[in-house]
Amino acid sequence: MSQQQAPAVPQQLPQAPSQGRGTLLGLSAYLLWGLFPLYFPLLAPAGSVEVLVHRVLWTAVLCALLLSVLRRWRPLLALARSGRTVALLALAAVVIAVNWGVYIYATQTAHVVEASLGYFINPIVTVALAVLLLRERLRPLQWAAVAVGVLAVVVITVDYGRPPWISLVLALSFGTYSLVKKRVGSAGADGARGLSALTSLSAETLLLAPVALVALAVLEARGSGTFTVDAPWHALLLASTGLVTAVPLLLFAAGAARVPLTTTGLLQYVTPVMQLVLGVAVFHEAMPASRWAGFALVWVALVLLTADLLGAGRRRTRTG
User: Fold this and answer.
1) 200 closest CA partner among 42, 320, 86
2) Cis bond leading into 7, ω under 30°?
């Protein structure tokens, strides 16, 4: 018996440290994303469109440098062999650009609470999109979560006197982005399967870069660009958008590779919780009782989804 058990010991010992590092890396990513509402207002007087343009361009520049230093251009170039993969990545790039732009607008116009709602309801929207677009069959708890989530949006719509369009666009755009990236992974093109975070981000920002360059040229020609006319530190802040975009994404990718999906699913709520706290405590955005009621319904839906996720994980463990 001892001889049969001996080989299992060296396999189990690295798992706890690896999962611990993975959790720390993932948590670091979500903490950085949670601090974004403090960062983007610092880029004023640049508006949301100019910030988005610089974010795309400087992220593309940083990715190109990393690909060169790490000598990882080959996987990116391999993607060009499949027209379908390029088309899917182009769609993903457009959708994530919409997500970035709306989020920047929200943080610059005192809609941080509404932005946080978008990331609270994102898991619910992703589940709903899976049913509508992928024809996936939901489990009972998932159906309950979607129903409660829809009720929450209705309550919050009544509270605002309008649909929470920032929340909905953020959730729908990121949910769509996730589904498109799932299709990219199954497209079967050379290099597409197992696409790394760096390769993916590089492809998306490089595809967007020509459009961003044209937009920047238009802004500068109209005299509405701020990169060269404000203080030097302002240009450095705009350039820092590349680091701010790439670092948490790479931390997340490194963490997600080391921890179970259930851990990642639980960690994802760190970011919207931080955003909500910042919106209420730091930016003093209004939160009447009716709005709290809507958020409470969202959290009930998330509890249901989390319970389903944990239950599914335990079932996989037993059957595995």
Assistant:
1) 86
2) no
Q: Which residue is listed with tokens 């790490």? A: 70
Tell me what the mean pLDDT of segment 61-75 comes to. Answer: 93
Would you call 149 helix, strand, or coil by DSSP? Answer: helix
Mean pLDDT across 48-59: 96
Q: Which residues contact 146 (CB under 8 A, 6 or more apart)?
A: 124, 127, 128, 131, 138, 301
Separation in Å, CA 137 to CA 134, 158, 314: 9, 31, 19
- Dihedral sign (CA 53, 248, 171, 115): negative
Q: Which residue has the tokens 């969202």?
A: 298
Burial string for 123-137 (b: 16+ CB within 10 Å, else e) reads bbbbbbbbeeeeeee
How many residues belong to the chain? Answer: 320
Mean pLDDT, residues 236-245: 95
Share of the chain above pLDDT 90, in %: 57
Structure confidence by residue, pLDDT tens digits, 255-279: 877 877 777 778 889 999 999 999 9
* Cβ-based neighbours of 117, under 8 Å, separated by 6 or more: 156, 164, 167, 272, 295, 298
Closest CA to 59 of 206, 213, 216: 206
DSSP per position, 54-120: HHHHHHHHHHHHHHHHHT-HHHHHHHTT-HHHHHHHHHHHHHHHHHHHHHHHHHHTT-HHHHHHHHH
For residue 290, give every residue at least 6 positions away whose Cβ sits within 8 Å of its Cβ, in sequence order, or none: 155, 158, 159
Let me know: does 307 contact 141? Beta carbons within 8 Å.
yes
- What does the alpha-carbon distance between residue 107 and residue 115 come to, in Å, rounded to a whole number? 8
Return the amino acid letter for 36: F
